[in-house]
Every structure is written in C-alpha cells, then in structure tokens.
Design goal:
This protein has four helices and four strands, in the order βαβαββαα. It is an alpha+beta fold and 137 residues long.
Length: 137
Amino acid sequence: MQNLPKNKKIILFDGVCNLCNGAVQFIIKHDKKDIFRFAALQSDLGKEICNFIAVDQTKIDSIILYNPGVAYYYKSSAVIEVAEDLGGIYSLVSVCRIFPEKLRNYIYDYIAKNRYKWYGKKESCMIPTPELKAKFL
C-alpha cells in the first residue's frame, strides 16, 4: 500500500454522491485539528484500502473511517467516530451509541439507499480545489 500520511485518519467516501461530498466539505471546514484525509471509494487508493481491510466494496454502501494500523469503522460507527474527532458540539453525536448498532445502521442504510434519489449524483468524482488538494489522497 502506498505511503499513507502519518497520524491521519482516512475517510473513504462515495465520490459521486452529492450527500457524501457535502459531508466531506463539512468535515474539512470543521476539522480544526487537521485529523482527516479523504479518498473516494472509487479511487485506486480507496479500492486498495478496502482490499487491505477486507471490506467487499460490492457489499458496502457506506462511509469508511480508516485509522491505519489501529482500526476501521463504517456506517453509523464511522459517523460517530468522525463527530467525536471533530470535537465541540459535534461530539454530542456520540450519545447515539446508546442505541444498538443494528438500529443505527438500519437508519444509516435507509439514508444510503435513497441518497442519490434525494440528493443527486455527480457524473464523476469531485476534483478538489488547489487549497483543498492536500486533504485528498
């Protein structure tokens, strides 16, 4: 696997999903501690990471948070982990842990299944602006 940045968590996201791209923009804006780097699931690196952590991309319709050498999270657990890392008021999302993961993921899956219908889809992955390029792998 290519050299991943040290001490950074990698968010793999659906690069053609408008909801996902909006979430990435939100995270970048609020990532005051510069914790995250991003890669589209459709990218070579996204596929390589999925293979490395043994996640079948054909069976997952989700955000993946990969902390190299430590752990990975997907679906609602990834959302909660990201919110906690953003800190401040966003860390209150962690209260969702009181709900069983199966219930959280049911809601997550419902939104994921309808995201293109509700938010639309791009023809290709987002191209970051020069200012944001360093955040993308």
